[in-house]
Known about the structure:
This is Inositol 1,4,5-trisphosphate receptor-interacting protein-like 2. By secondary structure, the chain is of the alpha+beta class.
Amino acid sequence: xxxxxxxxxxxxxxLVTGLCTALVCLYHVLxxxxxxxxxxxxxxxxxxxxxxxxxxxxxxxxLLRCRHAVRQRFLPGSPRLGGHAAFSxxxxxxxxxxxxxxxxxxxxxxxxxxxxxxxxxxxQIVGELVRAGRSRGSPGLIPxxxxxxxxxxxxxxxGSAYEQHKIRRPDSFDVxxxxxxxxxxxxxxxxxxxxxxxxxxxxxxxxxxLKAPPSPSGAxxxxxxxxxxxxxxxxxxxxxxxxxxxxxxxxRWFQSHLQRSLxxxxxxxxxxxxxxxxxxxxxxxxxxxxxxxxxxxxxxRLSMAxxxxxxxxxxxxxxxxxxxxxxxxSGLLLELPGGLRSEALWGVxxxxxxxxxxxxxxxxxxxGACYLKCLQxxxxxxxxxxxxxxxxxxxxxxxxLSSYVLKTVLxxxxxxxxxxxxxxxEEHLGKCxxxxxxxxxxxxxxxxxxxxxxxxxxxxxxxxxxxxKVLREAAPVDLLAAFDGHARExxxxxxxxxxxxxxxxxxxxxxxxxxxxxPPPRSQRTQxxxxxxx
Length: 534
């Protein structure tokens, strides 16, 4: 995907002013040292007052140019924002388009330079850790180590930072760490989408029974069960009379193996950064914290958190991950009907297919399409809506409107139209954002169903390439099915309230101070949600 660089006026003009001031100071020092050796005759002007007048004129010109550039950049009706006059009642209000664009530039947009440095640093550190984990193997866990899990040796970077729609700061990343199964073990994955006795929250999960791999020798099932018994005892649980790979046991092994691997590479990393590993227990994957070293004088000294997610490859770039994503992981050890055990549940990760889908849309998009910018603003709108909520309400709000849900909303809207056409041009940014908000609200109110964009017969399989059979035959997954109707209605009300109060929120939380003088909208209606108001 193309990355567009824009001039940050808030940094550029102060930099020019500082440079001019430095030149004046340098001239003053040089003139003073020369004047000490050769004082001018009485009545002769040494020239420095004239230079000060010239510098003052130059600074006045710079300030006027700065004001003119800002007015031209954000003036309603300019080519950049000319289409906002056709946006809804809110975007017909004077000054609101200025607030939206300014909020994006100052609070949402991520510096490509800083993001690139952060991704490269994460890739280097995680690469060393994974290679150390592969070389260590699993000593002592299972006698002989032949039937142990192991790191495959590579890692896969997923999430918004690698899809060009991350916002604010490049300080959190997700990385899949694929695991290698023993040669004697194969998996028989199965979707739980048809298990009607399960709560809707669990129907997007998978279970993985063990089976014998295809063998030309035709070994009997009894011999295979006996041979793989050490692996089954260490990593599996019984579900309906069959041994199933346990996400909880795999996650526990993964965290301890990472700790041993980190001890191996910690010394070699001391000169570049400080690295610590925080176990996530049975509900979250472990997090690798990368802190800048005091001797690191790089231009992007950021503290970063990297979630390392154990993954089992199913084929065609699809992985099962442990634990399942929230809110499923919060009930990882619950008893389920039908003889199922929640510790055997796995989530599915189709990040590779989603990246292909975004690339497919990018190839067919009109030049200047702003759909990724709309997604970034939709995330920012969610964050604004969380302000003023207590911790429990904010957590529920963030789970319902997760980044994955918001990305799926964008993909669903785009796929309904085939590709981002001229209607997604930058000049229609406000209208496109309103369309996403309206579709999301309809999904929360059950007017539309927000299906997973890849799973099931209705997924975008034709655009993303081949999929494993178990995914093609899986039942469609409603991403909001895990939440009850009351929570969804509250979220929809909060979303509408946030949208209606957008001008006030943008003035309060974003942009330079000179934009606070923009005229307020005529409508000041507000609507509460979850007992909290920003």
